[in-house]
Amino acid sequence: MAGALWLVFLSVVLQISRADDRPNFVFLVADDLGIGDVGCFGNDTIRTPNIDSIAAKGAKLTQHLAAAAVCTPSRSAFLTGRLPVRFGMAGTDRPLAYAFLAAASGLPRSEVTFPQMAKDHGYQTALIGKWHLGLNCKWVGDHCHHPNKFGFDYFYGFPGTNAPECDPDDVSEGGTGATAKFITNIVYTDFYVWEIAVSLFLCLSALKYFQYIQWKTVIVLSVVGWSAVICTYVYWANGRVFNCVMMRDDDVIEQPYDVSTLTPRMTLDAVKFLEERKEKKEPFLIEVSYWNPHTALLPYKEFRGKSRHGLYGDAVEEMDWSIGVVMATLDRLGLTNNTFVYFTSDNGAHMEIGDAGGWNGMYKGSKGQGGSEGGIRMPTLVQWPRKIKAGTVVTEPTSQMDIFPTVADILQAPLPQDRVMDGRNILPLLGGAKQPSPHDFMFHYCGNVLHAVRYRPKKGNVTWKAHLASYPWAPGTTHCGDQQLACFCNVQFGVTFNDPPLLFDVTNDPTEDRPITADSYPKYREVLDVIKKAVEEHKQSLTEVDNQFNMPLFFPRPWLQPCCNFPSCNCREDVDLSSLEIQM
Ligand SMILES: *[C@@H]1O[C@H](CO)[C@@H](O)[C@H](O)[C@H]1NC(C)=O
Ligand SMILES: *[C@@H]1O[C@H](CO)[C@@H](O)[C@H](O)[C@H]1NC(C)=O
Question: CATH no. for residue 150?
């Protein structure tokens, strides 16, 4: 009897101590930051001492891949551990991302995120900053795609994204009228708006001609069709009011938001969240999701003109400062040792926009190119002093989708069994285990089109990459030129499909300058055959899903528009930034 009681007592003690052992989690996510923009990845002119310090105290991942080369799909994959094609967040070509806060598209409710898993295990969770995965479905307050519905207890930030339209003067790209150019390009060339309107009218007239419908119907349907076109135009042209919206949980607190104070405000809010958790002794998971250094480039006044790379460099240095404040807060609260800190970017630097975009180092490609290293190889660091040795370098291929299963392993939480997970647990690699990547294959998508496959055989130490597609790079560059927003995914945008695929050894040729041929490598055919078979198997694991960016879901619906002080849609958050000591 006494023995049994002892056992119960011991197991309770063990449980408690295990519970106390669980780390906290801090995720720091940059927007459009290139792997060549960070000090510890080789940049010697942008100052990122706080990011570099994470590398020095933890692990640097040199082949960490995003699941997509644009924000919305990449972020949805990061949170769910799954490829966006599995749940409709991949798009068919354009559009590839969520663009209007008044649209009904977004992360499907059937998806499970790792913050939700942490919440289910007793963590307090927060998202501070950018979401970009949808907002409403049927009416303006349903918030069916809101971060609070996907495991974040607390949300302070912008449900959409920062974008050139959020700049009141449109000066951040050198006053080139980037927003106007953007609108013209997208609305008039890509969405075939006029073609749709004219075809609608012709169809209706034909129906009338053959007496299927009455003139009344023609008029009503034309009005509906034209309203849709005009409404979309109004939304594009007034993007700042409609899309640059700041929320705290369910409330709109600033519209349009002031980009230039976002990072200081987010930093203050993150510090407050950390202090509260410490005080209440609650385990926490926080994601600080920066606008930096995505356009509109409007860093806080203290940071302007301070870097050697214009507003872009200023924006990177502002983010680094904020990360420094978050890390110093962990230190001050005595939380550093047992906090898992992860830093990454959602996709590669946007090379098409010149000085307003960043630098992907030696890697070829740009934002938008889901198959190019420059589009998806992310500057990534993990710090967790209890488990990860300072100065660890992980060169094996890893993915942002690995975070879900890795957090699950840390929490001893089971993975969802009813779905395919694409991520793998990388805790052993982070812990310094000398072993190959848990991924034999990685499938690199552009929208819903497979553009490249990475193959890491368990034996040997080479990683292969097969390019199924090539982009129409502007001469002398590895991007699509400044006349275009970015490269896209299909033949109508100049993409060519390679048969046989172009094969590279990215371990020994990371810049992909020397394609492997049957002459240069005797087992060339064998490698391609293995990859081909893997692609077939992978395709069989995909199921038919609704595309979240199809036209009806993508276009704005006025009744879904968040708006404070209706009808002006105008409000300001009252914040005092004087408590922030900005030291550079
Ligand atoms: C953190 O860990 C290090 C080494 O493991 C140890 O020297 C230090 O005292 C710890 N700090 C705290 C606050 O626990
Ligand atoms: C550092 O980043 C800037 C801005 O993106 C870039 O222009 C520069 O080439 C980078 N330097 C190195 C050494 O990569």
Answer: 3.40.720.10
